[in-house]
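Data card: per-record layout.
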Amino acid sequence: MEPDFSWLADPAALLSRFETRPDRIGLDTEFIRERTWWPHLALAQLAVHDEILLVDTQAPGMAQALRGILLDPGITKVMHSASEDLIALQHACDAVPEPLFDTQIAAAIAGIAAGAGYQRLVADVTGVALGKGETRSDWTRRPLSDAQLAYAADDVRHLFELHDHLQARLEALGREDWLREDCARMVANARDDALERWPHLPIRAAQSFDQAGQHRLLRLLRWRDAWAREHDRPRSWVLDNDLAATIARTAPPDQEALKTLLERNPKAPRKLLAEVWAALVTPLADESEAPPVRTEERDKRALRQLQDAVATRSAELGLPEGVLASRRRLESLLDSGDWRAFGDWRRAQLEPLLAPLLAEGTGELPSGQASV
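The structure for this 372-residue chain is written out next.
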């Protein structure tokens, strides 16, 4: 049987498919990230008009040809769970696809499911069962196998059907603006290359640290992330969380003591001893602003009240758990009273319910933060 997709390794062949500009394309990517900080783009799959294109992004000139398509504001890019794909495209093509319609986000806002995988959503909407056999493939090799090509084509084959189905549901619910806001935020996040400001907060071991220990951990993780990005290496290859926490807790008194500690750990960055030491002992300009690591008991009652209120409102709206507000986002709200992370539509739904709870004495909002 002849394949129902086209392999493109010539930029001119790609651009010829856009001589008649479509109003939408289905888009997915395959990339490699196991040994790097950045996802390295290996393949882009496009559904264009009635054709599926498998675009060899390793071919000379292809990234630049693809860039113009990604930036065309007249073409809606239909993708599924696009966050990492956007970063891969930004890194390879210096472009983030916009406008974006993410079918995973749309399914959550439409009340179908939160975090639904592509295979599940395709099965629910179209009745087609897709395989997962090539998820761990090496997409940089050439030529790709027939199984890889078929799998890659399937990743965009049903995006238009999902788009039509989900768009109709969102229109019926009056939630198109909710999706546009969430997709715009995802695009903005992909463009923003700022590192996480408080990378120590999710580290469970830091719950037992005093403030000085938390500051030491913050310094190490900030340095680790910056070094890993600059040298395009995974975080854990530079300094894993467990070792960073051990160093922060132990607080070696001098560089020789740090060297002894590192030599006991086979994964330690011994060649970066001087840099690790400098990071450990050099205060950050903003570390006094760091929120404390949340413990299991801290503000437990307040958090439960917020979660219950969110669950009630979610049920009223028919939204799956976690769509309105995750536990981590509510914890951040308790810490700072800052609603900006919620965006406009979530804040409109939740602030009237949560602001009174925050003002009851367990997390009073700072002045001026209680209203839009």
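Known properties of this structure: Residues 299 and 327 are 13 Å apart (CA to CA). DSSP finds 16 helices and six strands in the chain.

See the next section for split statistics.
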